[in-house]
């Protein structure tokens, strides 16, 4: 796989829109919904269905986040399911502006590893778009995960949007030893951080997702519509992206 260099100071897998597949470590296995979720509702019944001892490779559901587009406020009215509204004012085509509703749905996670009572999870879909790895442009080597805008957003705004206060008690602070860049000859020479939400490193990507096919992560309507690097839109807004770029943790 050829890795490309980006001036923002981070790398991404696949060419296309910038979005995020998010990793989390659960300190203790809380009630998790197992199997597939059809998306017909976003109620608590899905979360209440406890999974039987999830193992590596399983898909579980934990937390809730806006994902599927319901429609424009002028077309659908106020939804009768949990939702988030977003008002756009700066779309490329003026007719795309306005308020849109997105269904708040249970979040699917792939179990990458299980260690005793801990689960290492990666979001099965790309949940957020349009968030810069770092707001300040500078020399790539100076932009690292420990001081990045992305890290602050994930462990500030995002974790509160994704999990309830009760769910957050199950999320462990993962000790991350970071590389400053993708040159393994430098060793793990970045700052050590403790994060509850984070992006995969290249080492973790190669260890847990060795095959290219296993790295494909569909982008949600919510992430696609908010992406700063969205692909050309063919409708209002554009949907249907199968897989787009997603950030890794390294800077440099």
Unreliable spans: 1-18, 35-51, 228-241
Q: How do the SSEs run, as a string of H and E?
A: EEEEHEHEEEEHHEEEHHE
Mean pLDDT: 73
Shape: globular
Number of H- or I-type helical stretches: 6
- Relative helix content: 10-25%
Largest sheet: 7 strands, antiparallel
- Structural class, by secondary structure, is alpha+beta
List the helices and strands and how they pair.
Layout (H helix, E strand, L loop, with lengths): L11 E2 L4 E3 L2 E4 L6 E2 L9 H5 L10 E14 H4 L6 E6 L9 E18 L2 E6 L4 E2 L19 H14 L2 H4 L5 E4 L14 E4 L1 E2 L3 H7 L12 H6 L18 E3 L5
Parallel strand pairs: 2-13
Antiparallel strand pairs: 1-13, 2-9, 3-8, 3-12, 4-5, 5-7, 6-7, 7-8, 10-11
Descriptive report:
By secondary structure, the protein is an alpha+beta fold. It starts with 11 loop residues before the first strand and ends in a 5-residue tail after the last strand. 16% of the residues lie in helices and 28% in strands. The N terminus is likely disordered. Strands 3, 4, 5, 6, 7, 8 and 12 form a seven-stranded antiparallel beta sheet that branches. A four-stranded mixed beta sheet has the order 1-13-2-9. The chain has six helices and 13 strands.
